Amino acid sequence: MEKEPITNQGLEKLKKELKFLKEEKRPEIVNAIAEARSHGDLKENAEYHAAKEQQSYNEGRIQEIENSIATANVIDVTKLNNDGKVIFGSTVSLQNLDTNEKIEYKIVGKDEADLTNKLIYFKSPIGKGLIGKNKGDLVEITTPNGVKNFEIFDVKYV
Asked: Is the pTM of this model over 0.85?
C-alpha cells in the first residue's frame, strides 16, 4: 500500500472524525435502526431503510479513515529548514499576476484538501505547479480555468 503524505493537523482531524463516527454516530444509527424495527413491517418502513443506508455510509467512511490513517506518512514541515522552497505542507503566499489578487495556500494531502479553507491537494494543478518552486519565482500554471500566472512572494513552514 502506498504511503499518502499528510500534515499533523490533517492526521488529527481524521482521528477526531473517526472517534466521532465510532463513538457517537454509530450508536445513534444503531438506536435509529432499533427504533425503526419496533415499528413493525420492515418492507414498507422508510425510516428503517434510511437508517440502514446511513449505517452503510458511516461504516464505509470509518473504513476509509482507518485506511488513510494506516497509510499516512506524516510530514512535519516545522522541523525542516525553510530555504524558501515550496514543499508538501508549506504555506505559499502568491500574487496572481493577471488579477493582482494575493492568495495564500497550504499544500496538503488528499484527505485534507479543502479549497474553501485554502488547503490545496499537492497533486492538483496548482499544487503540482508550485511544488519545487522557490520564493521569488514566477510560475505559470495551467488550470481547468485556463493558464494562471503567479509570483511566489513568501513560503512558510508552519
From this structure: no
H or E, element range at 151: strand 146-156
pLDDT, tens digit, 9 for 90 and up, residues 90-112: 999 999 999 999 999 999 998 89
Residues in contact with 110: Cβ distance below 8 Å, sequence separation at least 6, in sequence order: 4, 121, 123
Look at residues 133, 6, 124, 14 and name the one whose alpha carbon lies nearest to residue 75. Answer: 6
Domain containing 106 equals 77-156
Domain boundary among the residues 13, 47, 74 is at 74
Distance CA 48, CA 50 (A): 5
Please give the Cα distance from 26 to 42 (Å, whole number): 20
Same domain, 8 and 20: yes
The per-residue DSSP string of 85-107 comes to B--TT-EEEEEETTT--EEEEEE
Residues 82 and 150 in one domain: yes
